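Kindly inspect this today.
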Amino acid sequence: MVEQLRAKGVRGGLWSASSSIFRAVLYLTQLAVLARYLGPQDFGLMALVLVIVGLSQIIGSMGITNAIIHFKNPESGALSTVYWFNIGLGVTLYALVVAAAPAISFWLDEPELERLLVWGGVAVPVNAVGQSFRAILQRELMFRDLAVIDVIGALFSTIVAIWMAVNGYGVWALVWGALVNQGVGALVAIIVGGPLWRPRLVFAPLRSWRFLRFGLFQTGDGGLKYLATQLDRVFIGDLVGAHVLGYYSLGMQLMMRPIEFFGPVLTRVGIPILAHVQEDRSRLIRGFLEMTRIQSLFLVPLYALGIALAPRLVQVLLGPEWSEVIPIFRVLCLVGISFAVGRPIGTLIVACGKPDWGLYLNVVTLIGYFVAVSIGARWEAIGVAWALVVVQVVVVGPSQMILRWWLAKISPLAFFRAIGPALVASFIGCLVAWAAVVVMDWLSPNLFDIVVLGIGSGLGACSVLLVAHLIAPQILARVQRDLYHIIKHPPSN
């Protein structure tokens, strides 16, 4: 049983990782093109649209994905009820977004925002149509199919966004790129997941109550977490406008993309697998700590190298006109490090069936963010970025430490042992990359930015791998063993 789950986890990780790498390449390509055709005002307006639409999607999802994964052998009638409930809620929320669009546009003094919200909000009901199919595929550990869904949606989205930007559609390139991603993803999810399950014309709320109750806490948890992470955009957009928000938004996008692309690789695989062993406390702890080690080892070095190479990265990816992003991105990379080591707590909460605990955690986090961001906003975007760092250190980190102990008796020492190798290796890799850039600037000041970026990141990455091998060889050996197994026995699903 354990080996079967581990094998499925390894195969799932490969499919999810392959999808994430491909989508990351598409995203960087899209961003590099759009940054040269669109301005800060466009990215700032889209950031405001995503605040409203993203919150509506979280409320509309009702945490159903994790509920379907958590409860074993659910009745078909219950699943159908949940499906139709989700669609109805999505349509209702879209109607609310349309009704509120004029007031939101007036409040933020952005006239164009009204139309953007009306069209961007279509993503809410569209997402609801395909959500249950995705959840069933994830529950059945069919990660290849999920990877195909993500890749096809991202590919069509990139094509549409780039075409519209090049042809002068401005911010609408961002809006329609997002809509196409949602629409194509939902359609492919229905096609792929249809053979496993098809909704029936049934609406039996009593049968589905346990899903809705579980999902209600998940919705509260996700909604509060989302509000906490979006307060910065609201404050900046309200106090200094969409133009400044555009710079901040791009810095935040660059910081969040590693988490958004590679974090779900372990989350998507980890939730169903940890759910299978939730009653075996020792296996649950080992599985969670292994997830934390691997995620830290992959993500923390990316943020450390981002701090060292930020000027070159922004110059190459966005262009010289986006230099104001550099200090914002550097500070936000510190937040990214905290996200990388702390995010697996969400997987543990869901696997243990304690969504209400995540809700309480996010109440505390939201209060901390509100206080810190309202103060930091006095110093515009850079002040808000530093405010997020303070909240992570003072509020989020200690709260997660307490929660890990309450959920699974994971001590702070065990946790720091899990993330320690990644932190040490990343610090040294950051120093090596920074030193390499300084030396190259001294020896050849006119060297192309992309060459400096490539050499600096290459030397930094090699340093991370070398240090990690010296201080934690067992982690790299485990990853190497899993990859060898995949090569010898390619995954079918």
